[in-house]
Design a protein that fits this description.
This protein is an alpha/beta fold and 372 residues long. It folds into 3 domains: 48 residues, no CATH class; 91 residues; 167 residues, Rossmann fold. The C terminus is likely disordered. The strands form 2 sheets. Strands 1, 2, 3, 4, 5, 6 and 12 form a 7-stranded mixed β-sheet that branches. Strands 8-7-9-10-11-13 form a 6-stranded mixed β-sheet, with helices on both faces.
């Protein structure tokens, strides 16, 4: 590959002139100057000259690259890759519009010890302007925070339990839990259950807490809130459904628990929603027209876009006023919930519920911000 000096020699001009022409910094007001510049570019192309992007990036102090870091588990040498669902596509699209390329960087953790595996070599070179990080495992090891802090690169976290002083974009799970409960209450359900998981991540904590608070606010029994035990999901769900006051409406904390409940109900021969109404929290890409369930959709796309916005401010040296930014999802109504006593057609031609649920007084203050 030719150098600037070789191109300058072939064109009979100085190296500085070649550099200005190839970087589009040469003044080409006159036709003769424009023709000469075109000739220099033609000579450079014929000699196989390619600009050194890395060198130029070092000189200007920017790379126009962002690392999209995702924590995910590895079990017995087998990676459990987190796909990024709605976060990653939204982030790369938004960053591309701003002229940035994206380097995906999975950070694997041992599922038993939770310890972080080695950092990818490419990431360790810090050839990026910023880091958009996604908590895909639910637990970010302290070693990772220390490593990123040592890099000194602007960083924004998505879906991470808030950390003081660290910019984090979270989903407003409290509004989600309240909205799902109110939807079932407004459809005549008075015995409402919830199946979740025992985990310290903010999403699991806020979902269970908000369901509990809204049931109490409505004067309903909150004893149907169950935290499933590892390896015993089926047994715990069966026990909940065997209660004399078993729920007529049930909320699942995520799609895997929703499928577990659906499996138990199928074995029992129970009909949805005639025998029991089901709702859940879900992520991008999990909702299907073939099985249109009622769900509170986590705003992954909006969270990613907000994360990019904050990261660009940090890259530009602007201050970020807050540490935590909450983004609200929206309620999507499907055929898995219905009014008590309402009989649905068995076939998929049954119409979707499209009316907006009447908000509980505790939600009216936030009605303008809710996206149904």
């Amino acid at each position: 590959m030719a150098t600037l000096k070789e191109v300058a020699r072939a064109a009979g001009v100085s190296v500085d002139t070649v550099s200005r022409v190839l970087n589009r910094k040469n003044k080409e007001k006159w036709s003769s100057t424009a023709r000469r510049s075109d000739e220099i570019r033609r000579i450079a192309a014929s000699l196989g000259f390619r600009p050194n992007a890395a060198a130029r990036a070092v000189r200007r102090g920017t790379f126009h690259r962002i690392a999209f870091v995702v924590t995910c588990f590895e079990f017995e040498g087998r990676p459990e890759m987190f796909q990024g669902r709605g976060y990653f596509p939204a982030a790369i699209h938004h960053l591309a519009e701003l002229g940035y390329s994206v380097i995906p960087v999975p950070i694997f953790q041992d599922i038993k010890t939770l310890r972080m595996k080695s950092i990818p070599h490419l990431f360790a070179e810090t050839a990026v302007d910023g880091i958009l990080a996604l908590d895909g495992s639910g637990i970010v090891p302290s070693a990772m925070d220390e490593f990123i802090a040592d890099l000194g690169v602007p960083t924004v976290w998505l879906n991470r339990s808030p950390v003081p002083g660290l910019p984090c974009i979270t989903s407003d799970e409290v509004v989600g839990g309240r909205t799902l409960v109110r939807h079932l209450v407004d459809h005549g359900h008075r015995r409402i259950g919830y199946v979740g998981l025992s985990h310290s991540h903010y999403s699991w904590v806020d979902r269970a807490r908000s369901v509990h608070m809204e049931l109490e606010a409505a004067g309903l029994d909150a004893s149907g809130i169950v935290r499933l035990r590892p390896q015993h999901w089926g047994e715990d769900i069966e026990e909940l459904l065997d209660r004399p006051d078993r729920p007529t409406g049930l909320i699942s904390c995520m799609m895997p628990t929703f499928h577990a409940v659906h499996h138990v109900l199928s074995r029992r021969g129970w009909r949805i929603p005639e025998d029991i109404s089901l709702a859940c929290f879900s992520s991008a890409g999990e909702w299907s027209k073939d099985f249109p369930f009622t769900t509170w959709r986590v705003p992954e796309t909006e969270m990613a876009e907000k994360g990019v916005e904050l990261l660009m401010d940090l890259v530009a040296g602007k201050p970020v006023p807050n540490a935590e930014y909450k983004i609200q999802g929206r309620l999507i109504l499907g055929t898995t919930t219905a009014k008590r006593g309402e009989v649905w057609k068995k076939h998929s031609s049954a119409p979707l519920l499209t009316q907006n649920p009447k908000p509980h007084p505790s939600l009216r203050a936030q009605r303008s911000n809710l996206a149904y």
